Amino acid sequence: MKMQLPLVYAFEGAPITHRDRLLLLGSCFTANVGQALAERMFGVLHNPTGLLFDPTALSRQLHYLSQNRQITAGDLFLANELWNSWEHHSDFSHIEQTQAVAGINAATAAGHAFLREASYLVLTLGSAFRYVQVENEQPVANNHRAPAATFRKELLEVEEIVASLTAAIEVARQLNPKLKVLFTVSPVRHSRDGLIQNNRSKGRLLEAVHQLCEKLPATYYFPAYEWVIDVLRDHRWYDLDLVHPNYAATQYVFEQFCAACMSSETVVLAETAYKFTLAARHCPRFPQTQAHRNFVVQQQTGLQALLAAHPELVFHGSWEGVER
Q1: How far is CA 258 from the centre of its chain?
Q2: How far apart are CA 285 and CA 295, in angstroms?
Q3: What CA–CA distance (Å, rounded) separates 89 from 68?
Q4: Beta strand pairing call for 219-221 and 180-185
Q5: Which of 180, 188, 201, 248 could bridge across to 128 with cysteines, CB 3.0–4.6 Å?
Q6: What is the pTM of this model?
Q7: What class has domain 21-262?
Q8: What confidence tens digit (pLDDT) does each residue in 279-297 have?
Q9: How big is the chain by its Cα radius of gyration, in Å?
Q10: Do residues 121 and 180 make contact, with C-beta atoms less than 8 angstroms apart?
Q11: What residue spans define the domains of the chain?
């Protein structure tokens, strides 16, 4: 008896290894994958300037990173006692204007430097709806909980999505001609739009992504959306909100990503690295015991040996006496 529909997928690019550097931009699903890669010591930077959902916001941010666009105080607005940017996540909002500017500019500079050397750009599209300020007709990447009447909601056409992302990728490849692009569509349902409208949105994203892969060289698609929506399907794979895939679902999709897009040797090395990441996070109940001190020495020695044998690994954790 079949319990799941099979999904046949073959990655058309060269297998991803720890020597590759991966820049991930987009929705919260990108953050989950980026965190999992970092835990396995890949050279990765995800969402340096915050989560992005609509393709045109992502396109603008890719332009900014490619050009290392630095903002000024005039680019911010004051709301709810915080200085915010319409183009950046609320993580960068701050009560001090200078702090908000400095945080955004530092993140942009870091993203620019990473993009220059990246092997892969992983773009996860979340929604084909975007929000435009009524007063000045400017689209925003984040509404910062401003009143709904401030914005006009638009459903992007497939042609608009393709055009904006094509231009952004071309600019990024002027900075880094060897850049490969891997698209995904987030399986997170935007239930506030309504399920019917969410499906219209996802359909446009999927069609746009496939057109981009057919149009642009070294551009690929990974079916994270289909693995959750069509293979897992059941609500037991979702969080309590029945919208976000739960830990088990994201781990399942990540395992499919590793199996499809990496060599078996890379997968084995990644899981070895992951064990040391978990060990570094361990919070002992009695850290003063000799047993724990022995454990720390053993793990630190093993990690140093692993990093020496595989200099391509990037240890994103923190452990006294261990160099990243």
Answers
A1: 16
A2: 13
A3: 17
A4: parallel
A5: 201
A6: 0.93
A7: alpha beta
A8: 988 888 888 899 888 888 8
A9: 21
A10: yes
A11: 21-262, 264-324
